[in-house]
Amino acid sequence: MDELWKMTAMELKTRIRERNISVRELTRYYLERIEKYDRNLNTISEINESALEQAQRLDSAKSNRDSALFGLPILVKDNIDVAGLHTTAGSLALSDNRATANAAVVENAIQCGAVILGKTNMTEFANFTTQGMPNGYSSRAGNVRNAYDHKKDPGGSSTGSAVAVSAGLCSMAIGTDTSFSVVACATENGITGLKPKHGALSQAGILPIAGTLDSAGPLSHDLSDAILLYSGMAGKPFSPISPIPVKDLKIAVNLYNREMVSDAQMERYERLFDVLRRNGAGFSEITQPYSSYQRTIMTCEFKRDLEHYLSCASAGRKTLDRIIAFYQSSPEKMMRYGITTLLEASRKSVDDPDYKEAIRERAGMRRQITDELRDFDACIMTGPTNIMHFVGLPSLALRLCMGEDGIPRGIILYGADEDRLLAAALTIEAYCGPVLPPKLRA
Fold first, then answer.
1. Measured CA distances, 198 to 168, 176, 216, 297, 401 (Å)
2. CB under 8 Å to 157, separation ≥6 — which residues?
3. Distance between CA atoms of 296 and 340, rounded to whole angstroms?
4. Which of 137, 186, 333, 360 lies at a C-alpha separation of 20 to 30 Å from 21?
5. What confidence score (pLDDT) does residue 110 get?
């Protein structure tokens, strides 16, 4: 039993199907790991007290045992509704917001057999509270800590979900991503993250930043697990995705902001590129830039979309202005790093001319970027760019290798066609180096 946490979800699913372990045993195993290790990591915001009951019902089930997520215990980010649990987005201003129904992606996962272990801590309001807030910090929970090194960045804002997967506190976890909150979190924690193409998953029951950009997404040990959870969140089986033969791979490398990447990281990329080239993969260089229009969309949509969510929620504070007033009434507790982003968003609207310009720019850039990527299976990001998130393309993070400092490193890919991207990434994943699990302290 001690090694179960190192197993992929697919391996655990096989054990359950062959009745080598019961769902209740596996669920209890993860709950005991959370009890033992999370005090030093601070990933969990709330435990689902009915998790063992859910597990027992699944053990007693005589049908649907082959469903996608049958018996797999998962964790859910604290801006996604789970019936009976709180949805606070890490903010004390929403500490009374107890969900009465599951978000669509959670309900789909449950219908596909998942056990909900609980909720995970996150960067407050999905890192849309203020400039300069540390990743993983929230007024409700304090700091989430990287399982490899507490002094290292745990990533944001799906921080608790990512660290929990890294530390083996669940089989997989659900996060959300507006701009790198799943994929960058994955690279910081030695795991895999997937942000589906925009609109592929329902956003119902998720506390938003901006509906034009937001997406839920899976965090897991490897890409096959991520695809498995993605299918469960969608509530439908996916057609099998087979890796593209490496000799047929067509890869673009985005050079934008390459100078901002350390020499050590570029050397890690080049080692991967070299081995892929030697095995026949084709490479081309392109430049696809960062867009400042993304932040315009976020600041202009936030108030509208947040208040739409709150209008149907049990939270007492139904408006952004009331939330800001709550922060300002207790600055030492609530404004440790300020609330500059919330204040900016309170003054913006989807009626603003700059918002309409940003939406037009997004439509034009989506056509341009999609056309530029048409002949490629995947594009690898080297220097920082947000272009894939701005135009709504699918993106994912793979485990690349261990760094010389004992901290894992990752690689981010995106593409115009989601199925081709996933197929290419399955191939590329096989050429990445091994990543060791963190050494945890009880």
1. 29, 12, 9, 14, 29
2. 122, 123, 126, 127, 135, 176, 181, 185
3. 15
4. 186
5. 98
**Cβ atoms of 219 and 192 closer than 8 Å:** yes
Per-residue model confidence as pLDDT tens digits over 29-76: 999 999 999 999 999 999 999 999 999 999 999 888 899 999 999 999
Q: Which pLDDT score, from 0 to 100, does residue 1 have? A: 66
Angle at 230 between CA 428 and CA 64, to 5 degrees: 125
Which residue's entry shows tokens 């504070």? Answer: 317
β-pairing, 282-286 with 250-254? parallel
What CA–CA distance (Å, rounded) separates 263 from 313?
A: 48
| DSSP one-letter string for 415-427 | -SSHHHHHHHHHH
Predicted TM-score (pTM) of the model is 0.98
Residues noted as catalytic: 77, 157, 181
Residue whose pair of structure tokens reads 């996962």 in the numeric block: 109
What letter represents residue 106's amino acid?
V
Q: Which of 81, 155, 150, 94 is nearest to 123 (CA)?
A: 155
Measure the CA–CA gap between 297 and 358, rounded to whole angstroms: 7
Q: Is the per-residue pLDDT at 115 higher than 70? A: yes
Show the tokens assigned to 254.
Answer: 């985005």
The string of DSSP letters for 21-82 reads S-HHHHHHHHHHHHHHHGGGT--EEEE-TTHHHHHHHHHH-SS-TTSTTTT-EEEEETTB--
- Neighbour-count burial for 216-255, b at 16+ CB within 10 Å, e otherwise: bbbbbbbbbbbbbbbbbbbbeeeeebebbebeebbbbbbe
Using CA atoms, how far apart are residues 144 and 121, in angstroms rounded to an integer? 7
Residues in Cβ contact with 62 at an 8 Å cutoff, skipping those fewer than 6 apart:
none
Q: How many residues are recorded in the chain?
A: 442
CA distance 413 to 269: 12
Q: Are 359 and 233 in contact (CB under 8 A)?
A: no
Residue 2: pLDDT over 80: no
* Alpha-carbon gap, residue 79 to 205, rounded angstroms: 9
Pairing state between β 142-143 and 172-177: unpaired
Q: What is the DSSP letter of 434?
A: P
Residue type, 391: V
d(CA 290, CA 177): 17
Q: Exposed, middle or buried: residue 350 (CB in 10 Å: 0-12, 13-18, 19+)?
A: middle
